[in-house]
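Before a computer can learn anything about folding, someone has to put a protein's shape into writing. The three-dimensional part falls to structure tokens, numbers that each stand for a local backbone shape. The protein below has been through that process, and both of its lines are reproduced in full.
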Amino acid sequence: MKNKNFYYEKIFGCFLGKSIGGSIGGPFEGKKEFLDIPYKIPEEILPNDDLDLQLVWLDLLKKKGIKINSDDLAKFWENIEYPFDEYGVAKANLKLGLKPPITGIYNNWFNECMGAPIRSEIWSCVFPEKPEIAGYYAFLDASVDHWYEGVYGEVFLTVLESIAFNEDNIERLIEKSCGFLPEESKVRKVSEMVLKLYKEGKNLIETREEIIKNFGHYNFTHCVQNIGFIIAGLLYGEGNFLKTIVDSVKCGYDTDCTGATSGAIIGIILGKKEIEKQVKSEIDKRIVAGWGIKNVYVPKDIDELTEEILKLIEIAEKEENLPKIEKPFKLPSIPEFTPPLKINFEISEVFDFEEGRRIEEEIVSGKYNGFESFIFNSMFIPVEKIFNGKNGVCFLRTEIEIKENKKIRICPVITDGIKLWIDKKLFLSHHIHNPEFIPASHRPTSPIVELEINKGKHEILLEVIKCNEKLEFAFIISDDKKHLIFPFPEQGSRRKEVRI
């Protein structure tokens, strides 16, 4: 191994920066304005899934060795309890029997979000100065719950961090790392744009505005804009540990992630001693794990974590023919697969608003017989095609089957209006024109019905209301812990599948 003390300093600095940065950014997560926050160490270290999931991969490497594959990573997702966004979709896909990379793309509206880019450090630290190998492991990791820019994001940050072990010039570091992604990648484009604007003398606020203008997304966890904020923090921080983190966080959006990742990168560049020299205050170096991981080894502090990674470096250096990514790395084609979901919806004709009000009672009581049956292979129902450009209302009817008495959450996410009846009882009437479609049962923008439901079959009736330009709809059901479930009866083999 190259000088062990050298790697110790860099790895310790990486995870010290990760811990501090995530704790600085955590309280501001989801805020989209430019933030006015002080340049100071946080009062306490907060748990963060950015680190938690990497502790799961550390445990995997300790138990299985260096030569792992995507199936090994997928298996260890059983140790992750977090139900959020892409995590929840991937876990549900794994339960449906799917394998990576299908688990990262099927039913997954969040496949370009920050859940994968935030777990880059474990691979870069196990494979320091070996970006091609580190990048391959990042690809395996990300493809379980992401695709497209979500995978490019983790590969990019992993490569950048691996190179950072022997490149402390931040501009050159960004340039070298961009070369690992294809020119069409938005992660590469935003990083190159931020570097260009910095060289032109634009200030942080001006650069942030350009990131949002050219790559902004209303979902605060979308990765492209957030990676732009990370790169901005690195450049405008100009080698100062706290300024790098805080300038990333000031840009807003997914601030626990941008703070944690910019902190990890500048932590590798500076190393443990230089961070302590700059900060000049006592730093909590404990590992504070969150509630969402289980049955895995959790080091007590950053020193113990660093020592465990050093052991893995020694093992990795003895391995031959470890897989690598090509430069530039391009995503492989998605293999063909049969979608496992078959969700039957009976759909009415489209009524104008006055007709809809008149016929609603007839439909709820079961007297209307004008439904046509469709089977969908996803929880995303293309209702826009049902309306075919017209405004009005239509009714969708389906059935769920519950195996035991339990609490569930029914979440018909829509950009316009929705009513929900369960067994002919009205549970929800929601009509807000919200263009920010975020299909998740834990997001506050989603209309949610929580209820205790008895074992057996239950009729679900939905009234979809369209009076706005664009209509998006997802029918989501989760358990009381917010994990996705699909309690739809199996469709008979004789039933004709019709896709709109």
Notes: Residues 171 and 199 are 9 Å apart (CA to CA).
